[in-house]
Amino acid sequence: MIHYLLRRLALGLVTLVLISFLVYGLIRAIPGTPLTVEAGETDISRKLSLENEAKRKAAYGLDKPWYQAYFIWLSHVMQGDLGRSVPKRAPVAQLIGDRIGPTLALSGSSLLLTWAIAVPLGLYTAARSGTPDERATSLVLYMLYSVPTFVAALALQVMFSIWAAGTAWELPLFGMTSGTPDMTTAAWLGDVGSHAILPLVCMTYVSLAWYSRFISTNLQEVLRQDYIRTARAKGAGPIRVLVSHAFRNTLIPLVTLLGLSLPALLGGSVIVEQIFTWPGMGRLFFESIRQRDYETIMGLTLMFSVLTLAGQLLADILYAWVDPRVSLD
Amino acid sequence: MKPDHTPGPLASEKPPRGFWAEAWSRFRRMPLAMAGLVFVCFLGVVAVFAPVIAGTKPVACRYKGSIYFPCLAYYNRAWEPVVFTTDKFRGEYPRNLKEKDPVSWAIWPLVFQDPYRTVRADEWPGLPANPARDRGRPDARNLFGTNQAGVDVFAKMVHGTLVALLVGFVSMGIAGLIGIVVGALAGYFGGVVDMVISRVTEVVMCVPTLILILALLAVVEKPTIWKMMAVLGLTGWTSISRLMRAEFLRLKSSEFVTAARALGAGHSRIIFRHVLPNALAPVMVPITFGIAAAILTESGLSYLGFGQPPPAASWGSLLNDARSNLTMWWLVLYPGTAIFLAVLAFNLIGEGLQKATDPRLREARK
Question: Do B300 and A305 touch (CB under 8 A)?
């Protein structure tokens, strides 16, 4: 077990270095640097003189070729320093720390909501397999799964912010809060809550459709097995058979899924956060690509990659833990 | 689902059918999958005949004694007959044809609207100019309304169909090719080859797709639709390769491969003649789902403003127009529905393929 873990960790480190190297090369290949993007945004009178620009380039390490700059970045990371964002004038670690809260609030509640609805729905569709109501439910779920998030987000915005304007159904178009600093905590929470409804719906419906289909398919496969017939023959009720005999045995793939959803939990959703201007990680990522904010992109990529690899490892370990037939070595 | 014919060679009058014929007969009996297939065929027809459905260039016309097909210019700018450029038509056919050659005739597209520009007043006798800004609600003249620049949404969508389908098929063709080759090599040779390929696959999977796509698009500079397809293909092969690798791992130790090796078959013969045909069915499923994903990604990128520069005709770019003014609901409803239906159709086909080709599911049904 320890041998396995060490091997996986070593391989993971190699992968991390490869990924960061590749991403560093890629982002330096995108035309423009943080300085040119910034210069394009400020007015001409304040544009930097050539000499000054060369000085700033040197200060940010932009005068070196990208592979050299990469190794400087790498050595800083090894010392626990993610660097400073040039356009945002703040340490990357602090930028990421500021965004974790909003992202986690959104993705965490989305995950809880998904599971709370998907498990009963999956059980229901598996139990009623083949009946007209199950087919209708499955078809609706399948259609939901095919609706692109950005289309759903736009449609929801049109419905709840434009058409419902002035009615009780109106919901805020974007942002996390429109409150004033002197709001009471309860009023602030309510305000954030009303801002979170549309992004939450957008983040939840796809995974909801996907998870409940996944649970249902797995359950239907298990329900065909002999031991289920035995359980029924012994006189176990339909609910008992479904929940404690069948569902328990489909937990293994679910556990794997849980591990694989780890990066999305902290990474947030770029599209949803961008559309609703939710101040989370996904939006930070999008902003930093726009601003050629190399340090922040690298910090976020590193975080995503660590989470992805950790999620895979976690899934494999959990898999071996819940299923004694699986051995890791 | 009942078995098609009773088992046993003597009981059946028909000759035994091959794997794909069998799969097709199962596929045909799934109404949803068939509906998806029919819809994709419909999209294909719309895509191919887009200039006949909506355009401002005649499908065919007789001008100064010879016959021309100016609508072909919608497929490729260079195919616009030179005579119309030298005679200074400037894209306005109806009036110029009549003025410069009174005996000319022309067959016009079903809808006189252009996907790349607005239609000016009296360009078509009696037809007023397209409404611009937010006044372009859908009506009898602009079936799906117009965008801020006054370009007809219906025409844009009809012409965008080709883009959507091409993106799906070409990018997944590239991804399929890479995925199949890479996965086959990893699975067949194993050892160091597998180790290296698996690491590379993992790296590509871990790099955030948005960065990968944006950086690659930036490297190729001016994004055209073809470069977009290449980039989507270069980033979308990982799941195909993993599945292919698993199939090869499973099949390479089977008896028929051992038999082929014993007969003296070389590596390439075993890979291409013996294992690949048997491993192809499972990878058709992620390729079909991949087409749906590619259409989704392309429209998503256009929506975020990273697609082809305007005035490209892409479903996603219409959604991007909607972003600046949400009261123009028709810029959300029609392209959104088109993207949704296309994605749904390919997902349904993929699901049908999975059910039709998976031997495990087949056994379970009997």
Answer: no
Residue with tokens 């616009």: B80
Q: How high is the ipTM of this complex?
A: 0.81
Would you call A305 and B206 a contact, using CB atoms and an 8 Å cutoff?
A: yes
Beta strands in A74-230 (DSSP E): 84-85, 90-91
Element (H, E) at B62: strand B60-63
Chain B residues in contact with A305 (beta carbon < 8 A): 206-207
Verify whether the Cβ–Cβ distance A150 to B329 is below 8 Å: no
pLDDT at residue A314, as a whole number = 82
Measured between CA atoms, how close is A181 to chain B, in angstroms?
29
| Alpha carbons A267 and A283: distance in angstroms, whole number | 10
Listed as own residue / partner, the contacts of A319-322 with beta carbons closer than 8 Å and 24 or more positions apart are A319/A252, A319/A255, A319/A256, A322/A251, A322/A252, A322/A255
What three-state secondary structure class fits B265? coil
Amino acid B364: pLDDT? 44
**Closest of A277, A62, A68, A70 to residue A172, by C-alpha:** A277
Give Cα separations from B149 to A245, B132, B161 (angstroms): 62, 5, 20
Residues of B in contact with A271 (CB under 8 A): 300, 304
Find the residue in A nearest to B203 (Cα).
Answer: A19
Cα distances (angstroms) measured from residue B314 to each of B2, B138, B335: 44, 19, 9
Largest CA distance in chain A: 87
pLDDT per position as a tens digit, A8-22: 888 888 888 888 888
Contacts of B219 in chain A (CB under 8 A): 26, 29-30
In 3D space, the residue among B241, B185, B19, B248 whose CA is nearest the CA of residue B257 turns out to be B248
**Residue from A82, A33, A41 nearest A293 by CA:** A33
| Residue contact A29–B333, C-beta within 8 A | no
Residue of B nearest to A140 (CA): B344
CA angle A288, A293, A294 (to 5 degrees): 120
pLDDT of residue A266 exceeding 60, the answer is: yes
> pLDDT tens digits, residue range B237-263?
888 888 888 888 888 888 888 898 889
Largest pairwise CA distance in chain B: 79
Q: Block means of pLDDT (10 residues each) for chain B, length 366 residues?
A: 49 68 86 92 93 86 83 82 78 79 83 82 76 77 81 88 91 93 89 86 77 72 78 87 86 86 86 85 87 89 77 82 82 90 92 80 46
**What is the full DSSP assignment across B217-239?**
HHHT-S--HHHHHHHHHHHS-HH
Structure-token pair, residue A309:
């690899």
